[in-house]
Task: structure prediction
Amino acid sequence: MLTWISLFLYLLIVVSLIWGRLFFFKISGGTPKILAYSYDLAVVCQMLLTTYGFIYVTDVTKPYSFFVPILYLASLVIFWRSVVTAKSLDFAFSNKVGDIVTTGPFGIFRHPFYVSYLIAWWASTILFNSLLMWITALYLTAFYVISARKEERTILASAQAKQYQLYQQNVGMFLPRIKKWKQSSSEL
Result:
């Protein structure tokens, strides 16, 4: 039963990511097509290997497999809350600077879409422990880190630099700033 719940949630992630790639994220002139295509290839590899794992690998009874549906659900919630909050964004490596979003998941992570993807890829990779999944998960992690840094350099070179610097001080790139949470809760 846990396997079917995990597979269902994973398929929702796949549909969500395909929807996002086709209808939510805009590819602007600053994104080299080779990067977009290599990213897509790595994502497709992760998706196919995970789906294969759920269908043909019967050993998903590892003690930590209980956490996989929870992680998948977290990935979906972060993704869709980010969609609702942001309305639309440029695809990675864009040179365009839009509005700085600081509410919803963007108030917890500066790059919540990347966080949602990383949660899904790493949950699958750890669950099925395939060499090719490890390679693609590492590639995708590097891609997100490089993309996030490039996006932030672009914003910091724009008219919104001061506002973004303040945002950077208060919100972590991929992990919440727990120190800030502790600080704000102690002020209550």
In short: Helices lie at 2-24, 33-56, 67-86, 112-128, 131-156, 161-170, 178-186. Strands lie at 25-26, 89-90. Residues 131-156 form the longest helix (26 residues). The chain has one domain: 2-181.
